[in-house]
Amino acid sequence: MWQLHQFPLCPFTRKVRILLGEKDVGYELVREMPWSRRDEFLHLNPAGQTPVMVDGERGTVLIDSMAICEYFEETVDRAAMINGSAANRAEIRRLTTWFDAQFFRDVSQPLIEERMVKRLVLRQSPNAARLREAMKSAIGHLDYIDYLLDHRKWMAGATISLADLAAAAHISVADYLGGIDWSGHTHAKAWYSAFKSRRSFRPLLAERMSGIEPPDYYENPDF
């Protein structure tokens, strides 16, 4: 069976886990704290980043969330998440990259560093100014999501895709860390509320990062 090295608030691992859930691919979670720089993990991925998937029997090691998602898109003929015409597939990849790059840089990463790493690893107080900037950026990103969903049923078009999975992964981490203000974002909130009820997503909402509790509404689809 596949082993997936991850920690609960890694948005890139969450994207992979949602995809594996949609495709009904079995795997075993291995808790990995990348900041510990464990020798065995660095042997798998010298960059020291999650996610990493390992199939020990086949000697297969997959690194990088997009590479992992593409691998299972190519090898599992179920619940295609990069689908449609060439133009639509390009849009799916564009938006997936948007969330993995811009949203992560502006929102997920500063929240993780200030509210998780500083608290659990460095034992430091968070930078309040950086947190305010991340939450302000989150509002801008939700505005963009509202715009997309005002013109489409899902992020990239008529059907659910990897773009939705990436968005849900990053938003769920930011929401866990108290960085999302949902007021005034009708379309984004309705989309995320529906996403919370998906079978592939429920296990992530139930998982906790030791030492950090999410807001009370975090798991509730009717928030």
Automatic annotation (TrEMBL):
Q: What InterPro entries does this protein map onto?
A: Glutathione-S-Trfase_C-like, Glutathione-S-Trfase_C_sf, Glutathione_S-Trfase, Glutathione_S-Trfase_N, Thioredoxin-like_sf
Under SUPFAM superfamilies, the record lists: GST C-terminal domain-like, Thioredoxin-like
Q: Which residues form the signal peptide?
A: none
Question: GST C-terminal domain spans which residues?
Answer: 85-218
Q: Which domain of life is it from?
A: Bacteria
Identify the residues that the record assigns to the GST N-terminal domain, covering every copy. Answer: 1-80
Q: Which Pfam families does the entry link to?
A: GST_N_3 (PF13417)
Which Gene3D superfamilies does the UniProt record give?
A: 1.20.1050.10, Glutaredoxin
User: What name has this protein been given in UniProt?
Assistant: Glutathione S-transferase family protein
The organism of origin for this protein: Sphingomonas olei
